[in-house]
Prior knowledge:
This protein has 479 residues and is mainly α. It has 24 helices and four strands.
Amino acid sequence: MAHDNNATPTSKIWQVIKASSVGTVIEWYDFYIFGSLATIIATQFFPKTNPLAALLSTLAAFAVGFVVRPFGAVVFGRIGDMVGRKYTFLLTLLLMGGSTFAIGLVPNYATIGVAAPIIIFLLRVVQGLALGGEYGGATTYVAEHAPDNRRGYYTSFIQTTATVGLFISVAVIVGTKLIVGAPAFAEWGWRIPFLLSSVLLVASYIIRRKLNESPLFQKAKDEGTVSTSPLRDSFVEPVNRRLVLLALFGATMGQGVIWYTGQFYAYFYLQTVLKLEQIPASIILCVALLAATPFFVYFGSLSDRIGRKRIIMTGMLCGVLFTIPIFYGLTQFAGPAVEKTPATVDAAGAVVPAVMVANNYQMFPMIVLVFCLVLFVTMVYGPIAAYLVELFPTKVRYTSLSVPYHIGNGIFGGLVPLISTSMVAYAAAQPSGFLKEHSIYFGLVYPVVIAAICFLYGTAKMKDVRNVKLMADQPTPVA
Length: 479
């Protein structure tokens, strides 16, 4: 029997969105402070004899949190489809918050040697597993409360959480650095953003604990129609397996690389390639994020009227066509880097490289260019939660949408900083030629190619499923 989602009062929906979003913002905050502090973490937990190797190792530790996200989607998706949505994303919240707090307590390489990076890697694994279970739970929970004809609008608020979490992580880091000073921040102050997560964790746990189970899931549970084997039903059953592959190769793979290129890699590029100091780079990113964030909701709402596919594919095509030109523009407006401190030789005889810094950058046009990158993100990301929810039946929705989402975002998207930085280093190491001359842009080839493949596949295979009625006994749709 069909369940009428429109029976859910609007006030109740906003309560659900608030509780789901607060916890998800905190989890993204926890996840991204590690990446935002990559250059400092490289000096704390890895040997200082080879700065590039230390940075790449840190990015690898950052990336491992993404690589394990699909496994978290499998583990927690199964729990969510069998036990319940609420219980599962309470568990993921506790795991994420606890591991983030622990990172702030780990002694550095100088104190405990190789044990330091090993512990960091293990904690990043826990973070990744937890985040793999979080998104599917929060998205499914909100969608199963939302009216059918406004699902894109209401789920788009969950889509803002990753950007808001990134924004808060940058703001807390910069604020802490200004308060304690740059030298103290590099020595011990960087731990404060990690430790603060415990306060945020407690607050968000209290809010989430008061929630009830999703009405659709509770109805399915009462009627005995929940899946007894979500993994088999999601990946062995032919029709549902085809939908999982469609979601991955037609939507989330390209969406993932555009998200991480437009927001995270752009921030990383400003600091490591263009040599902007952290505060001006943070101002550029944060202003662009603030200006663009309302467009997540705009495009989510628009997708209720004109369809999800058209908006997602347009954003993906914009990413393919304009990403490299925008990064070229950022480079021109940054100006050439100058030497802030000269190269020196330390007491052990090792050469300490010169510190280069951009001091003739033009902030406003750089904000506009980063805003354009984030605008592409809002187009591909704003409607995608509603698209994924409507693609899969209730009994396996948590598992089925979580796995392709986290492969697309965790593997393809999350590896953008590591792969792109490695490609830039490879191109720069060439003796001469076109590749060496344009080495700083070579890393962008990876996300552009992935987004292009996804655009072509999605355009050909995706159908515009929208505003469908979600039912407790909903059959597998045919896309």
